[in-house]
Amino acid sequence: xxxxxxxxxxxxxxxxxxxxxxxTLQRDAPPVQLSLNYPDPPPSAPTTDEPKQLxxxxxxxxxxxDALVAALPLSDGGEEAQLKRIAQLQMENHVIGQELHKQ
Length: 103
Prior knowledge:
single chain, 103 residues, 70% helix, elongated
């Protein structure tokens, strides 16, 4: 599997883990009394170690993503060369677009 596919899988993993972390935190959050006009909230269920495990999973996934990004090959010439190449490609696309428009 190429590195871009691995990066995409890792992003998907981070998104799924983040979704689960927020859902778990929301589910396990202790009730709060909004106003003195409302009755006391019911007692909350005992907390589990699940949020800690999910947080550790999220950190692990982020570190794996960073490792994959670090493994990407460096481009030749750095940022200036990349910007020059992008400008060149944009110019070529513009010229091709004009030719197609004439046809």
